Amino acid sequence: MTSSLASLESALDYTFQDISLLEQAVTHRSHSARHNERLEFLGDSVLNFTVAALLFKRFARIDEGDLSRLRANLVKQASLADIAQKLSLSQYLRLGEGELKSGGFRRPSILADALEAVFGAVFLDSGFDAAHKVIARQYAPILVHVDPKTLGKDPKTLLQELLQGRRIALPVYTVVATHGAAHNQTFEVECAIPKLEVKVLAGGTSRRAAEQSAATLAIAAIEAQGPGKGTRRRPRKSAQLSLPVAVSQESST
Amino acid sequence: MTSSLASLESALDYTFQDISLLEQAVTHRSHSARHNERLEFLGDSVLNFTVAALLFKRFARIDEGDLSRLRANLVKQASLADIAQKLSLSQYLRLGEGELKSGGFRRPSILADALEAVFGAVFLDSGFDAAHKVIARQYAPILVHVDPKTLGKDPKTLLQELLQGRRIALPVYTVVATHGAAHNQTFEVECAIPKLEVKVLAGGTSRRAAEQSAATLAIAAIEAQGPGKGTRRRPRKSAQLSLPVAVSQESST
After folding, report:
1. Least crowded by CB within 10 Å, which of A162, A164, A189, B96?
2. Among residues 192-221 of chain B, which lie with CB inside 8 Å of chain A?
């Protein structure tokens, strides 16, 4: 059912001295008692440290808060599941019947955990330098594209920074409507930036989620205006729920 | 004002190739621009990983949840500040005027951060093996005394496990009084274990805190009863607020 671990080794560019460690790393607890959870604990920490060291070296001038934010983004479940997918890790997973039937081999949490366990297995097999090398290899193509100014920042923060950079007043978020019963509500939020004549609407299952969506739309609307400073713009007119809305108005300056 | 770094090196049993790294590690941001916060980021992660690896090796049979709990306890601020104190780290700290005057060299957060930065500096100076060795040396006397069954568990959990081990019904927590205004309240909570005739009262600034204190008192009261199984006890009588109260009653069995 599962592919030969030799091809996983070649994808990792690492050959195990004790292949049973790799076998354990791809074994979910639903499959057998010798499963990967302890290796995952170890792998999670060698991964966190390695990515910290890689970022520390690559970005010599950014502060520790930014380093933390970048790392959190690079080691989060979705990022790990992406790497796991590139390694075709799901082909090697050993899952119990129930997990197999419910598609566990596609589940991001199972993939991310197994990937961490693989890193932990490499560390156990050969020590830190080998684990560092294996992890660095997987992250090399990702690190090339990391933008320390934006990666891992939420849309509201990005919008705020964009406006501050242009010395424009902060956006105003307003809940314009709520729908549904108390524990199953959706929120409609407006994000307005009068100076740029931007007014967008977005929905979400929480006020916060709706605000973040609205901020994303607002950024898109501002970027569509081009690199202007908020004083001269092409007048535009449109009005549509949940899409960028630039309210037409001649610039007063 | 600050002691020579050579004596810190000997306390760490490590000699820096680049002593300016150690100097930076003991420099708080209030002192100068070349401060220790980036090193702290790096040191925090090499510390977390090293302690994970030490625990993984030492406790071959405990699960990843227990490993996480143990690690969290070993790397928390108070634990780091303890180690910093044994190293007399405060003597080497470079603080700005304000921090100096307000006693910053005694503050656990500043000590813990500087210690992490020192570990990060060792890693930068010589790589992982050196950092592992320095950290392992500081933790060796601590790891000897780690009890994986109890370390880092809160009193309510410990009490619950103690009772489950004796097949006794769980304790009942009751708020018996609150004092003070809404945002400055104190709570008085009773913890009762009828089967053991234990009834204790404790106060706290939150319900949770009061419950934890009450659990601590309940454990003390049970331990004072000796290793009995809850069926035969010396009858005792006492009644005092915020102290163990064993309600006297002849055992019915």
Report:
1. A164
2. none
Alpha helices in chain B (DSSP H): 5-12, 19-25, 37-58, 64-74, 77-86, 97-101, 108-126, 128-143, 155-165, 207-224
d(CA B77, CA B44): 11
CA distance B24 to B42: 13
The complex's ipTM works out to 0.74
User: How many CB atoms sit inside 10 A of residue A86's CB?
Assistant: 10
Closest CB to B41 among A46, A67, A129: A67
- Partners of A42 on chain B (C-beta within 8 Å) are 52-53, 56
For residue A64, give the nearest of B40, B48, B128 by CB distance. Answer: B40
Dist. CA A71–CA B246, nearest whole Å: 52
The predicted-structure confidence for B97-117, as pLDDT tens digits, reads as follows: 988 888 888 899 999 999 999
Dihedral (Cα; A35, A37, A40, A41), 10-degree rounding: -150
Closest CA to B28 of B125, B113, B120: B113
| A153-253 shares the fold of A5-143 | no
Chain A hits for B129, CB-CB cut-off 8 Å, are: 128
Is residue A250 scored above 70 in pLDDT? no
Query: Is A128 touching B (CB cutoff 8 A)?
Result: yes
- How many other C-beta atoms lie within 10 A of the C-beta of residue B139? 20
- Longest CA–CA span in chain B (Å) reads 73
Question: Would you identify the CATH topology of the domain B153-253?
Answer: Double Stranded RNA Binding Domain (3.30.160)
Say whether A116 counts as a known binding-site residue. Answer: yes
- Record the tokens describing residue A157, joined without a space: 């923060």
Q: Which of B9, B18, B37, B44 is catalytic?
A: B44
Residues of chain B neighbouring A37 (CB-CB closer than 8 A): 63-64
Q: Do B56 and A38 touch (CB under 8 A)?
A: yes
Of B25 and A185, more confident: B25
pTM of the model: 0.75
In Å, how far is A52's CA from the nearest CA of chain B?
A: 6
pLDDT at B247: 35
The domains of chain A are located at: 5-143, 153-253
- What fold does the segment set B5-143 form as a domain? Ribonuclease iii, N-terminal Endonuclease Domain; Chain A (1.10.1520)
**Residue B147 annotated among the catalytic residues of the structure:** no
**Cβ–Cβ below 8 Å for B53 and A45:** yes
pLDDT at residue B182 greater than cutoff 80: no
Catalytic annotation on B125? Answer: no
Q: Which of A48, A63, A128 is nearest residue B48 as measured by Cβ atoms?
A: A48
Q: What is the mean pLDDT of chain B?
A: 87
Question: pLDDT-based confidence at A156, cuts 50/70/90?
Answer: very high
Token pair in block for residue B230? 């809850």
